[in-house]
Write a structure and sequence with these properties.
- Helices cover about 45% and strands about 20% of the residues.
- By secondary structure, the chain is α+β, with helices and mostly antiparallel strands.
- It has a domain of about 140 residues.
- β9 and β10 form a beta hairpin.
- The longest helix has 26 residues.
- The chain is elongated, with a radius of gyration of 37 Å.
- The chain starts with a helix and ends in an 11-residue tail after the last helix.
């Protein structure tokens, strides 16, 4: 198999892994940091009224198109009322109905919203508005104002800004003052602007929203003017003339209507409140995947039982440890006893901790090696010899645990977590290397194995890396890609440069 096939396969695996990672992190919002939290605001509308003798129908405008924010969850709270939600020109509406009610009533709408930069107003391009129906003097004043503002502007945005400036200085503008003196215009600047913009054939509407803040308590709704420039909606503050959505501004409803309406009752009052909370980002991501219809959570490790998740949280780090061993062996040149032995020892270090783990490992291997040399003199066959060594290892581990209990050394009790078979095979392998290549080579490989296990333990113990691999297991495809590429490496290892130093040409003297 040629190198091109390896390169293409590695590139495909890396591309798949990075694509899935980007989708889950950028689109679904899977957290990149452990214990990452997302700011979530709880918004609440309390609708209070006194019912009449007839049937009651209370309607509340609720958030729908909220640029920059998404709704995580919402609840409708009432006692005995029928409830339904529906779409309306102003957005969405929540309607409570009851055949007969007695005493003051309070209905609640509560929702959790979070910042979502990918969220935009996804409504379609609006049609050109109809010309407002005005009397002749008002129509002439409107046309004069539009002509003057058009001369002072270059596009829809600047036209809107200039128009609002004229409206805010109505006492000094002859067209606006004449228009208002005829009684044809509302007193509200945003509503008046929509009339003039309709006369200029520019789609516009009023957006009502609240300022999300960290201090809990009641808030007042504010108005923004939305103007469509043919491509997108632009936002203007009708008082300050500032363009754009203010920071942490949540659009609640749109249109000229009030936030709530009531049939069959009186004394309608609506109170808005907001409270900021911190929520686990993973919970937000799960909810976002559910709302978007994504099956990413169904096929993630989070779909497993909690006990199984704890097991895979450890198992998913084994490929990372193997990657560390591959780099240290193939590129650095560190000698070890086998490939997977250091990884399993590194896993045992997670419980014994590094220093105590090295000490316990050295004690077990040293004592087991002495027993192995003694068994060599008995000239036993391979399988009986390994069985004997394994049994000796178990007895040594049990003896060290009992001794640690007597000496009140808690780390010594964790020695049972060491993989017994791996220790037995290490002792066997080390004794063979000792006999065939000498004590120096055996000790070098033993120290190398401990060194690699220690490095793997440090890397596998990084909390951020554990979180990243567990939440984005597709990143292990990158490990496979790197392993495939490293499998074709035939160059020098770093520690081999010392071996071939004598072959390097000596520098010539002056």
């Amino acid at each position: 198999m040629n190198n091109r096939h390896i390169y293409v396969l590695s590139a495909v695996l890396a591309l798949i892994g990075l694509t899935l990672f980007a989708y889950k992190s950028q689109v679904l919002g899977f957290p990149l940091q452990p214990q990452e939290q997302t700011r979530v605001w709880t918004i609440e509308a309390a609708v209070r009224f006194d019912p009449g003798p007839a049937a009651v129908k209370a309607t509340l405008r609720i958030p729908n198109l909220t640029p920059g924010f998404s709704i995580l969850d919402e609840n409708f709270i009432s006692r005995g009322f029928g409830h339904a939600t529906r779409s309306a020109p102003a957005g969405r509406e929540s309607q409570w109905t009851l055949r007969q009610a007695t005493g003051p009533q309070t209905l609640y709408y509560r929702a959790q919203v979070y910042r979502d930069a990918s969220r935009i107003a996804e409504d379609t391009t609006p049609p050109f508005p109809e010309q407002p129906v005005l009397d002749e003097p008002s129509r002439i004043a409107m046309e004069g104002l539009i002509a003057e503002v058009r001369r002072q502007s270059a596009d829809v945005a600047s036209f809107t800004t200039e128009l609002l400036r004229h409206i805010n200085h109505a006492e000094r503008d002859p067209y606006v003052s004449l228009f208002m003196s005829r009684g044809s215009a509302p007193a509200d600047a945003a509503e008046l602007a929509t009339i003039f913009l309709a006369g200029a054939s520019i789609p516009a509407r009023i957006a009502h929203g609240i300022q999300l803040r960290s201090v809990p308590g009641p808030v007042q709704s504010q108005q923004l003017l939305e103007v469509h420039d043919g491509v997108q909606w632009l936002y203007f503050d009708p008082k300050t003339l500032e363009q754009g959505l203010p920071p942490d501004f949540l659009i609640w409803w749109r249109g000229d209507e009030a936030i709530a309406s009531l049939e069959g009752g009186s004394n309608l009052d609506v109170t808005l409140a907001v409270q900021q909370n911190l929520l686990d980002s993973m919970v937000v991501a799960e909810r976002r995947a559910e709302l978007t219809g994504s099956h990413a959570m169904d096929f993630s490790l989070f779909a497993l039982p909690i006990a199984t998740q704890a097991v895979y949280a450890v198992l998913m780090m084994i490929p990372i440890g193997a990657l560390v061993i591959m780099l240290l062996r193939n590129f650095i040149g560190v000698k070890t006893f086998g490939t997977f032995m250091p990884v399993l020892v590194a896993l045992a270090f997670r419980e014994t901790r590094l220093l105590w783990g090295i000490v316990l490992f050295a004690i077990i291997v040293s004592l087991g090696l002495l027993i192995r040399f003694y068994l060599e003199k008995l000239r036993l066959l391979l399988v009986p010899r390994l069985t004997t060594v394994l049994t000796v290892v178990v007895l040594l581990m049990a003896g060290i645990s009992v001794l640690s209990q007597k000496l009140e050394l808690q780390p010594g009790l964790s020695i049972a977590l060491f993989p017994m078979v791996i220790l037995s095979m290490t002792i066997e392998r080390m004794s063979i290397v000792w006999e065939e290549r000498g004590a120096s080579e055996a000790i070098q490989e033993g120290i190398g194995s401990l060194l690699v296990a220690a490095v793997a333990y440090v890397i596998m113990g990084i909390a951020w890396l554990e979180h990243l691999i567990f939440v984005f297991p597709e990143l292990l495809l990158l490990v496979i890609a790197m392993s495939l590429l490293a499998g074709r490496y035939t160059g020098y290892r770093l520690l081999e440069l010392r071996r071939f130093k004598a072959l390097a040409p000596s520098g010539s003297g002056p």
